[in-house]
Amino acid sequence: MSMGVLVFRCPTTGKRINSGVHTDESSLNKVRSLSVKLYCPACKTMHLMRAGDGQVDTVVLPPGQSLLAPAHP
User: From CA 64, how far away is CA 52, in angstroms rounded?
Assistant: First the structure.
């Protein structure tokens, strides 16, 4: 199962809100009804959403690269 960041959409602006939570679809399915409180930098307010309203944004990286490693030109 692919890991990714749980992202939401701002109900006011429609822009993405990065929750900073790393998860996978299987784990997300277990907590869909939990409430998540997020600060939205797009509209500068707090939103209360259900975890199930978010999506796991998976990133496929080339072998040997990590999201935590700095990119080298």
Answer: 31
